[in-house]
Amino acid sequence: MKTLFLGCALLAAAGGACAQTSFPPGGMPEGYKLVWADEFEKDGLPDPAKWDYDTEFNERGWFNNEKQYYTKARLENARVAGGKLIISARKEELRSMVDWGGQKYSSARLLTRGKASWTYGFIEVRAKLPCAIGSWPAIWMLGTKGKWPEDGEIDIMEHVGKEPNVVLGSIYTGAYNWPKNTPITTKTPVPDVCGSFHNYQLTWTPEAVVIGVDGRNFQQLRNAKDGDYQKWPYDSPQYLLLNLAVGGDLGGPVDGNSFPWTFEIDYVRVYQR
């Protein structure tokens, strides 16, 4: 979730890749069928058969100078209600937690690691985002092999409250990443991104990784098929993450009077050929 911005000319001069301006048609490709989904139909905690919680860096502090403490199986931060998953960030100090690292905010980071992962497919997450200053929700994927950035990262959606109605799509590999200053990342406008639900989409094939929203593709990395894993790690499984970060390098200053924040997910669906 570390994001910098570079133009295509600069990337080309550095020997990097660039998201092409000609995209395949948006929306789900033909011939795909549903293979995994969560429609969030049962109120309470998220389904433990599908979701786990990432709390690994609570005590040491999270990446990118983020300010939150991520809880595990706590309704105040992650609950299913009314057919939606609601991830909430709150202004509170959870001093009683054994791994509390001094954070002034709580939130949740859900992931399918160890429960579900995929190689190729069409992934769609329908969500409504918070727009408070300092908010940083994300829908993204990481390689199951566990080495970053070599095993790849796909940011299907990132948004920061200081820049409403714009989302980010980013693709990271061993060759294209921060701190090498060559991540493949693009902004795109999404009107009313916080006032209504939108469909955040990934089309992933052996030929390309393509990111879109509401049936409109705006970011991609094509496979050069030269066998260079540093440029294309995307023939191996990835798992899905949903989280709401607070502040940090991208989120920026936090409006402490704006809590609680809510990141609402209507459904998560994975299709494959």
Characterization of this structure:
This protein is mostly beta strands and 273 residues long. It has a single domain (8-13, 61-272), classed as Jelly Rolls, CATH 2.60.120. 4% of the residues lie in helices and 39% in strands. The protein has two helices and 17 strands. It has helices spanning 8-13, 248-251, and strands at residues 33-38, 52-53, 68-70, 78-81, 84-91, 105-107, 109-111, 121-128, 135-143, 153-158, 166-172, 184-189, 198-204, 208-213, 216-222, 238-246, 261-272. Strands 1, 3, 4, 5, 6, 8, 13, 14, 15 and 17 form a ten-stranded mixed β-sheet that branches. A seven-stranded antiparallel β-sheet has the order 2-7-16-9-10-11-12. Residues 1-20 have low confidence and may be disordered.
**Count of spatially separate domains:** 1
Let me know the largest β-sheet: 10 strands, mixed
How widely separated are the two ends?
A: 29 Å
Order of helices and strands: HEEEEEEEEEEEEEEEEHE
**Oligomerization status of the protein chains:** single chain
- Beta-strand percentage range: 35-45%
Please bin the fraction of helical residues: under 10%
The average pLDDT is 92
Broad structural category = mainly beta
Structure annotation, total helices: 2
